[in-house]
Design brief:
The protein is built from 2 helices and 6 strands, in the order αββαββββ. The protein is an alpha+beta fold and 109 residues long. The chain has one domain (11-108). A 6-stranded antiparallel sheet has the order 1-2-6-3-4-5, with helices on one face. Strand 4 (87-90) and strand 5 (93-94) form a beta hairpin. The longest helix is centred in the first third of the chain and has 22 residues, at 11-32. The chain is globular. The relative contact order is 0.18.
Length: 109
């Protein structure tokens, strides 16, 4: 029997670890555009949300920056991309606005 010690890692590190480099790159781009990361693994989300597994984040800021971020991320083949003023993408398909994403962009890989 071993006495393994487990440490809690920062949510920024968790996003990079579980979401892979695409999520980390998306996060960096969001911040370059002046968006702030408003949710990673914490908070309340839909059951089964990619947030809980460290594969998603939400970013908020000016409407112009969120529109730009959505346009750029749509070309990166995200698992989910939601921003109600522009629509939604899930598993490579445009699904339209889903509601609840008018004030932030949600992205998952």
């Amino acid at each position: 029997m071993t006495n393994d010690v487990f440490q809690t890692i920062d949510s920024n590190d968790l996003v990079d670890c579980f979401g892979g480099s695409r999520l980390g790159d998306a996060r960096a781009r969001a911040q370059e555009l002046g968006l702030r990361i408003t949710s990673t693994t914490g908070g309340r989300h839909a059951p089964g949300s990619y947030h809980y597994s460290g594969r998603a984040f939400d970013a908020a800021g000016s409407h112009g920056a969120m529109r730009q971020f959505y346009r750029e991320m749509a070309g990166t083949n995200p698992t989910e991309l939601f921003y109600d003023p522009m629509g939604g993408i899930k598993n490579g398909r445009n699904i339209g606005a889903i509601g609840g994403h008018g004030t932030h962009v949600h992205i998952a890989y």
